[in-house]
Design goal:
two-stranded antiparallel sheet, 50% helix, 14% strand
């Protein structure tokens, strides 16, 4: 039977921090989703990548409901169709805004190149589930096999014993304590140093 990976701990602070850093990006995309929705163009699922890869072609696809235009056997490029079809007021300005962003290096790096990390769900921009899972797993510790499980459980027992020792009167074990202050080590075998008895009152 395969070992089932076990979660030890999540760094919730780091996870929340990384997600918060992406809120600015989410708000950037939400601004454009709201504008498109106000123009009657519904953005869904992975549309953000398509929109910012080729804004004119994307809007054309929405306005023509996916229909193509051909002259004989020649299919007309969607970006060229964009210039030919009737468009709602505000579409040209929207396209100009996106195209301006596409040549702004700082916006490209901070926002647009992260479009593949988001989806649109019910008109709201949200992190993709796999991106959220990656952030969580990247800031978490897991036990991946039986040997790790046994080792970790034994270390936990040692931690519990150290905590019990520190409840006794006398010198406390802390991060300044070296392992050879407490133990004799020979051929990877540990034994308690006799003089450790004087640690206790």
């Amino acid at each position: 039977m395969a070992f089932e990976k076990q979660l030890i701990k999540r760094n919730e602070g780091k996870i929340n921090s990384e997600i918060s850093q992406l809120n600015y990006v989410k708000d950037y995309f939400q601004k454009y989703v709201d504008k498109l929705n106000s123009l009657g163009l519904t953005v869904v699922d992975d549309d953000l990548e398509i929109l910012f890869n080729s804004p004119k072609a994307y809007v054309t696809e929405k306005l023509t409901e996916g229909q193509s235009i051909q002259f004989g056997s020649i299919k007309i490029d969607k970006e060229k169709i964009f210039d030919l079809i009737e468009k709602p007021d505000g579409v040209i300005t929207l396209i100009q805004d996106i195209e301006k962003d596409l040549v702004d290096r700082s916006i490209l790096e901070s926002c647009i190149w992260k479009a593949n990390q988001f989806i649109v769900n019910n008109k709201l921009v949200v992190l993709k589930p796999d991106v959220l899972e990656f952030i969580q797993n990247n800031n978490s510790w897991f036990i991946n096999n039986e040997n790790q499980k046994q080792g970790f459980e034994k270390l936990k027992k040692i931690a519990d014993l150290l905590n019990e020792i520190n409840q006794l009167d006398g010198k406390k074990i802390n991060n300044q304590t070296e392992i050879d202050d407490l133990f004799l080590i020979s051929d990877k075998v540990y034994d308690v140093k006799p003089e450790t008895v004087f640690m206790f009152s």
